[in-house]
Specification:
This protein is 41% helix and 5% strand. It has a 3-stranded mixed beta sheet. A two-stranded antiparallel sheet has the order 1-2. α1 packs parallel to α3 and α5 runs parallel beside α11. It binds zinc ion (ZN) (3 copies). This is SprT-like domain-containing protein.
Length: 392
Amino acid sequence: MPLHPITVTATTTRTRRLHPLRRIARLICRTRGQTQQEPHGTEQTCRGSSFLHNFLPILEPFLLFDPKLLFVEDHILGRQQAPHSGTCFKVPSSLDELTRWIEDAIAPCDCDVCSPWLYQLSGNSSHGAINLRSSENLRRPRFYLPNRASHTPRPKLSLRVYGEYEAMRLVRHHVAWLDETYLQTSPSKDNLDVLQLRNLLHAWNAHLTGLDMRQTISKPQWLHLVSFFNKVFFFDAIPPHRQAISEGFSWLPDTEKSCFGIGTYNPIIGTQLLLHPTLFRHHGDPEDADVRWRSRLGTILHEMCHAFLKAYTCRSCPMHDYCVGPRGHGRAWQILASKIEQVATRLIGGFIDMGRYQSLLHDFEGHGRVPSGHDLEVLRFGTRWPDEQAGR
Ligand SMILES: [Zn+2]
Ligand SMILES: [Zn+2]
Ligand SMILES: [Zn+2]
């Protein structure tokens, strides 16, 4: 999902001439109306995928280039209009103002910790527990190096066409794995994956801090770096791209002025990552190469979180849209990104900026929904991580 800076504008989109794809889409929408009359019920159950879900993998690549087609996806998934083309809500001007809005709202927290009944799926759902397997039993990749510190069993996720797991269940599991692997012990001294990642990041510092990365780092280099991030932060769970039809990594065009990156997964073409070659979050100091380095590392991790959720979460689950959402930075993404940010800050040293607060505002602009006080407390916006000063 794209990572956009915030704009507070009210826009409405109306298209009169129908593109051929939109005509097909209308047909799909009518078919959906005939096959799925029942709206999402109040009972927390997941019906799994419908026949129309088969169109999603084919449709998704077109959405990257023509967001107007999102209305087709809305209809297939049975959700309200994606907020990309709707009225934008006013966003708070500061964290303090957001805090005041939350206090005024006095709404109970509906996260999976405070309101677990909203997330308990009934029926014959396949959204069960995530298997653990010992690291010794893993299929060893090429050039395997033993990782002495990886005694934490690594999860085994099922990769299915429609996503196998309820979003919050997957995220809680992944957060627990990250906690156990990197935060409750001190593995970094012996963990070869972490050591190799650190060495690579420092060796490629100049490549990653170029004002125009197209001149300083190649696509294969980015993919090499992504494979290390995948190993360290996602136990290699993010699926690769399909080499026959995709490069897996691309630059966003110069004409894009607000999107830093895009990360997504599609069952046909695999994981796709796009980065803007020149944009980065500089926090008022565009000349600081260290800030640029941290922003770019944070952006690629940000996009990998999107791809991870897209690959493994079930979009038919009743709370999926609420937790992931059409813009992608809902509670599930925020909690996952928050833990990745904390772990990255510890392993790499110094703050790795994933743009979480800006992303919260970006989604807020779309749905106007104030997070809960509990969310704000857990997500720790504007609060330093314990290891933030290390390595700087
Ligand atoms: Zn994003
Ligand atoms: Zn809560
Ligand atoms: Zn489901």
